[in-house]
TrEMBL record:
Domain of life where this protein originates: Eukaryota
InterPro entries in alphabetical order: MFS_trans_sf
UniProt keyword annotations, A-Z: Membrane, Transmembrane, Transmembrane helix
Presence of the UniProt keyword Transmembrane helix in the record: yes
Bilayer-crossing regions: 20-38, 50-70, 82-105, 111-133
Gene3D superfamilies: MFS general substrate transporter like domains (1.20.1250.20)
Name under which the protein is recorded: Major facilitator superfamily (MFS) profile domain-containing protein
Source species: Alexandrium monilatum
Length: 156
């Protein structure tokens, strides 16, 4: 909660968007898996308790760092029409997730199965991010002489 939010402010200004997104997705993959494992243990050792409390905060770290990176990456797109559309898609996907996730949680018999699903989705997102997403700012592309070969409909 509050600790993760307090850490997100200096981290978002000091780290690159790629690092923020990868950190958020790593927390979203490892955190729910650790929480599902450590939450089932009745008598925890000190190390297991520390892992339990750290894993409990990992979904919020994933949400905060992922939201910062996704929103900023969508706004950094060029041209402006594409940037506003991408930002709208990011916001609408978050809204759909807020509506669907309680129903999805209710479908599972055990809470730990839901957290394993969250860890799997985080892992899939991490793999797709590393495999498909280019992290090259438009300012660098423009300085390299990149040109837009596909004009928008409004440019005609």
């Amino acid at each position: 909660g509050l600790t993760v939010s307090a850490a997100a402010v200096p981290a978002s200004s000091a780290l690159s968007l790629r690092t923020l997104l990868l950190f958020g997705l790593t927390a979203g993959t490892a955190g729910p898996a650790l929480f599902a494992w450590s939450g089932e243990i009745q008598d925890r050792t000190r190390l297991q308790s520390v892992l339990y409390y750290l894993a409990q905060n990992c979904p919020s770290a994933c949400a905060i760092f992922g939201t910062i990176a996704c929103n900023q990456l969508s706004v950094d797109l060029y041209p402006v029409e594409v940037a506003s559309t991408a930002a709208g898609i990011v916001l609408s996907a978050g809204t759909v997730g807020c509506v669907v996730s309680p129903y999805l949680f209710a479908m599972f018999n055990e809470w730990s199965s839901f957290y394993i699903l969250l860890a799997s989705l985080g892992g899939a997102s991490l793999v797709m991010t590393l495999g498909f997403l280019r992290f090259e700012p438009w300012s660098k592309q423009a300085s390299d002489g990149a040109v837009d070969s596909t004009p928008l409909l409004g440019d005609k």
